[in-house]
Amino acid sequence: MPGKQTNGEIRIGFYVCHCGHNIGQTVDVKAVAAYAEKLPHVVVAREYKYMCSDPGQELIGEDVRASKLNRIIVASCSPLLHEHTFRTAVEKAGLNPFFFQMVNIRENVSWVHTDTAAATQKANDLVRAAVHRVAHHVPLEKKHVAIDPAVLVVGGGIAGIHAALTLANAGKKVTLVEREATIGGHMAKFDKTFPTLDCAACILTPKMSQVKNHPNITLWTYSEVASVEGFVGNYTVRVRRKPRYINEELCVGCMECIEKCVYKEGKTSDEFNVGLSKRKPVYIPFPQATPQVVLIDPEVCIEFKSGKCKKTCVEACDRDAIDFKQKETVEEIRVGTIILATGFKTFDARRVPVYGYGKYPNVYTSLEVERLVNASGPTGGELILRDGRRPKTVGIIHCVGSRDKNTNRWCSRTCCMYSLKLAHLLKEHTDAEVYNFYIDIRAAGKTYEEFYDKLLEENIHFIRGRVAEVTDWAVRPSEEGRLVIRAEDTMIGIVRRVPVDMVVLAVGMEPQTDAGDVRRLFNISCSTEGFFLERHPKLAPVDTFTDGIFIAGACQGPKDIPDSVAQAGAAAAQALALIDRGEIELEPNTAYVEAELCSGCKTCLGLCPYHAITRNEELKKAEINEALCKGCGTCVAGCPSGAIHQHLFEDDMIFSELSGLLEPQPADCC
Amino acid sequence: MSLPTPPAVQSDDGASIESMKQVVRRIKFESELDLEFGERVAAKAYGQKLLSCIQCGTCSATCPLSHYMDYTPRKIIAMTREGFREEVLNSLTIWLCSSCYACQVQCPRQIHITDVMYALKREAISLGFYPRRLPIPVLAREFFKRVLKDGRNTESWLLISLYLRTNPFRMLKEAMLGLRLFVRGRLTVGRERVRRRDQLRAILTPERPKNGGLVK
Amino acid sequence: MTYLYYPGCSLRSTGRAYEESLLTVFRALEIPLKELDDWNCCGATSYVSIDETDAFALAARNLALAEAQSSDGSVQLIAPCSACYLVLSKTERYLEDYPDVNAKINAALDRAGLRYHGKVDVRHPLDVLVNDFGLEKIAKRIKHPLTGLEVACYYGCQTVRPFATYDHPQYPETMDKIVKVLGAEPIDWPLKTRCCGGSLTGTIQEAGLRLNRALLKEAKGRDADLVATCCPLCQHNLECYQPRINRMYDEDIDIPVAYFTQLMGIALGCDERELGMHRLMKKPSLKHIMHPKGASANAW
């Protein structure tokens, strides 16, 4: 343990902050300063409007020099906010930054109490505890760890693609892991993009091929992260690479094998076309799939089911790329930072049975309609309904699985705009009457409102009312054989029945089904709705609570393409900032083992949530990896021999803080 | 109670414009509103959810009876929230609600709409606001008195008292149906009664006057 | 386990056939049923329009009596009438969910020397028959399958909304499942739970009749031979006003409306009179059930 850097005498400087009205309104700050002045070892006690401001910080420096202070206490806000600020100020004043203690009288006192006398007394008690504690503080040294410059990007949608390219273009080595057989994500399925109506494929596929061809990017599709170990700057990641039964190195994507497959017609629901078409057991997700490599679905391939297929695909492949014996492999990589861009899933419209999805064939989800109007979609871009008709009237129902406490409470942010886009495309393709049923139109992006204007001028119907039901119950001859949408036209104040040929459900965005597993894998947090939680909703929107792991795109919350791309860029920049710094400082509040006392019982190994403790089998003692230790204190409390201690939380510090808090006070004191 | 409608629109110089008599002046001054009404009703209808209404209209569109209502259920919620107390309590809407709960199970804000309607009905009855000739509140009242007396409700007696108090001619119209029910044993003459009526009376609000505290 | 049975006022009057058929069917299935002694009116939808506390207290007396009259840990109280089922389960739920309601109501009960501890499960016969007794066991006892009979199962509103947990509030299937086990064919129709207007047929008749007209027309339009109900008021409305609907709207509706328990009873081979078949306006004559759309009459 480092020796005490004092000249024997403890000289405490105490500062209490008004935080404008935040503290000053409830706590009698002057009284707190006056109280502190009388406490043992306190040499200086001051109150100041904003301690975190430059003049506030300089106050500390001046006093340290003038009054030879060697301990500093600031009573203000939460340490989460300004502990770093004040430690830096203490360090600038020439003291070891850990000769500092912070007392939170805002979150813990002024914000949660209303009675000034009681609040002031509580503040005094907390200050007294700190005065007792800080006397036992010892100087500590910060640790430094090097950052591995390699980056892992998880998820190959537009966010992951953009983050990977940004990093790769900055000269960093990137591994992009994608679960599906191709990158592109949801965006690859879209037809046009709002509000500019440029073709999604036209702007996405060039980026996809850049990823494939970039010398700094290793692209692993059809792969999933299996485990993550380590800490910021030094992660070891194992990636499970599922067998495609095709040698990726040999296949050139000529698709001869698909052509020659013993199945003349596809019989399996095509995932890329969201079930609107059929594919064969050997297939490629879509013509521009990246990598341009086919794969075999062992669930339906005859060779896998019976072993008795004629294997016409093998005959057809002149590069011998088909390999029925391919096995899953697990690869291990080392990276310093990780960007999660695992995306979203669309709301399952069956959860709102009143809209008839799955019951009435002409009820579609918005994603299905994207494929239906797409020139490379199942109908070649012709709008033919499941029953073979072409729609003359279309109803688009907004907020399906959004803004609804019975399903998902949140606004999915994208549905208004994509509904407008689909309304435009449907009108363009079919010249149908198009009705939008909405609660509120949220067109808050750049040039989005203008797009809404354009739609209004195209004479698209906008009925402000949430749809109660889609039914085949006809009460008028004009409704026979059609689907009737019932909603209140709230602008007019009357219930309307609108018969249509096609219903489009604008389904909302949800966390991926396995977002919880991914969260645990990477040791990050989720918000209540299941999206990944950012470190701060305003000031750290792409950071997580785990250092070195960043989030981008719709895995953090519903987002459109521009926002996803912007976030991906931000996440890449955060990773770059860490990489270019080369190393990071670690908090020294870590646990350490007093070897003479350790009995090697291994109790602590199972307790540590960060796998930071190992047992040195030679010495039969526990050893703590300081880089992995987060200073949670679990092992300290759990050690049966009392052999584990923690910097900044030594027993004498904690006990004196407690005795300070519990010290009997003379009646006249407060 | 209803919106103030002056006899005619006045021109700038104060002269009445005869030809525009059909024009109705409609404006609401903040001073005419009961600004605590919304919160008061919300408290009576289980939680403050009423206040979270986003005016989506699902309730109106789900309601099998909204096309008979003077204000759709959505409007009733908006008006309640904003303090249009007299219009709300005078409306037919609250009486047309048949408690089918269709709106409630679909409301995206999980507002207890049926409970809101009940709370408004109670408020209207206790303040004597309801439309006098409307049979629905009369039915509620007769039902109430019947049960208060016997602990059970005998349907034949209930219907007779309802028709007597609203539209005696209706009884003639229903006589045929009544007879058909009677011969099938579906209308009884004897009154169904609870044995421990003392117990029942002890449970119900003690100081209630005989007519159930209703405005006649 | 013995089920306690809460008939409610309607089952003693317009809905007598429901009570008769229900008791007969439960007897046939050997499900023990004991009537709640000295039950009182649930308050229906009317009482709560006058005084909410009294309305809850009125309903809660039945819950307290049920608890006192049963030795079971959780008391199973069957309420066949939709309004009773709703009011009793709502009271049960609100007593549990809102401590202030609970305090007020137990104070009221206390004045009569009663107390409710929250042990009652309010159950609908549909729920009990399908989820407790089981469709397989019903199937085993079918003597006269109603082969070919197309049935529009009509649940009405309050059996499934909003406090029932045994089925979907808009698209319930419990009755359809029973009807299927009886050998009949439940039709798929979208108005299963659309309100019949309840007491509106007695107050604002125009509105009430239109609702019933829509239901009957749709059932007929989808080729139903019969409408099956599980509520005395729905049955009354749908059955009794057909002539008036035909007169007022120039319709031609003539479709029997029976309780699902009556259909069960027939399939189980119970006595017609014990099922209250004679109380129906439009008796789904046994012939009708035996010969639906040319099906053979071998069942009887």
In brief, what are we looking at here?
Chain A is of the alpha/beta class and 670 residues long. Helices cover 28% and strands 23% of the residues of chain A. Chain A has five domains: 12-142, Rossmann fold (3-Layer(aba) Sandwich), CATH 3.40.50; 151-241 and 332-343 and 512-583, FAD/NAD(P)-binding domain, CATH 3.50.50.60; 248-326, 2-Layer Sandwich (Alpha-Beta Plaits); 347-509, FAD/NAD(P)-binding domain (3-Layer(bba) Sandwich), CATH 3.50.50; 591-646, Alpha-Beta Plaits, CATH 3.30.70.20.
Write a concise keyword list for the protein shown above.
heterotrimer; A: 670 residues; FAD/NAD(P)-binding domain; Alpha-Beta Plaits; five-stranded parallel beta sheet; globular; B: 216 residues; mainly alpha; 11 helices; disordered N terminus; disordered C terminus
Task: State the separation between the terminal residues of chain A, measured CA to CA.
Answer: 38 Å
> What's the name of the CATH homologous superfamily of the largest domain in chain A?
FAD/NAD(P)-binding domain
Q: In terms of structural class, how would the helical and strand content of chain B be classed?
A: mainly alpha
The outline of chain B comes out as globular
The number of helices of chain A is 19
Structural class of chain A: alpha/beta
The largest pleated sheet of chain B is described as: none
Spans of at least 5 consecutive residues with low confidence of chain A: 1-5
Please give the number of β-strands of chain B.
Answer: 0
Compute the number of helices of chain B. 11
Strand content of chain A: 15-25%
User: Most extensive chain contact?
Assistant: B-C, 62 and 59 residues
On the 0 to 100 scale, the average pLDDT of chain B is: 83
Give the H and E element order of chain B: HHHHHHHHHHH
- Helicity level of chain B: 40-55%
| Whole-number tally of structural domains of chain A | 5
CATH topology of the largest domain in chain A: FAD/NAD(P)-binding domain
Q: What spatial form of chain A do the alpha-carbon principal axes imply? A: globular
β-sheet strand percentage of chain B? under 5%
Binned, the helix content of chain A reads 25-40%
Major sheet details of chain A:
5 strands, parallel
